[in-house]
Amino acid sequence: MSQTSFVKRLYASNLGEAGMHDKYITVPKKADPPTFFGHPPKNITFIDKNTDILYDFPFSHAANGEYRLTQFGNYFDDKNAVVDDEVIINKIISGVSIKYEIDLKKKGIPIPYPINTLLPDEVNDDVQNSYSEGTKMTVLVNKYERNTKARDECIDHYGAFCSACEFDFSDEYGDIGKGFIHVHHIKPISEIGESYEVDPINDLIPVCPNCHAMIHKRKPPYSIKEIKGILG
Fold first, then answer.
1. Keywords on this record (predicted)?
2. What does pTM read for this prediction?
């Protein structure tokens, strides 16, 4: 088995500051980007070394000749990345299998750095008069309010069973499972970043906790269609 890697120290421009419109890292020329990742454009899936969360980054060839991995917003936000942090990319080759691993170290400290990602669960039971969502609540980290009125309307429309695997808790657990289901935001509220009026039918979908966790195993999340494809 062989392994190659490179390290990129983050500057303000990488983090979307200094007037840049994207968050990205530049692949160093000495890593031979087309050989390291193949010929662009395409998406490269990385596994986070410390959390096993999958992240997709488009690999592109910029007009100025640079090779870049782009759309790092989710990753940098999850890691609380700041200037002078280091992103480590590993290419791990085992036989005909190739996988890419990503890690972030805080100013060179070789220890896992905790992320702020919460498991997508029901985090708020406050009933509100409208379907306004997205208001930040400070607990240990910022998280986003879930409106139970919108949740209930979603379940009334779709039914209390998983839209991905069709698991029905009442079939397995009887009365205690009746009506139990998670509700998944098709577009994560954390990406919206502001209050908005949620559409219970088009913005939400019921899923079981297992499928919900697997949907959020990747950034951006898997779609219901993709999860169904994985399940066969």
1. Endonuclease, Hydrolase, Nuclease
2. 0.59
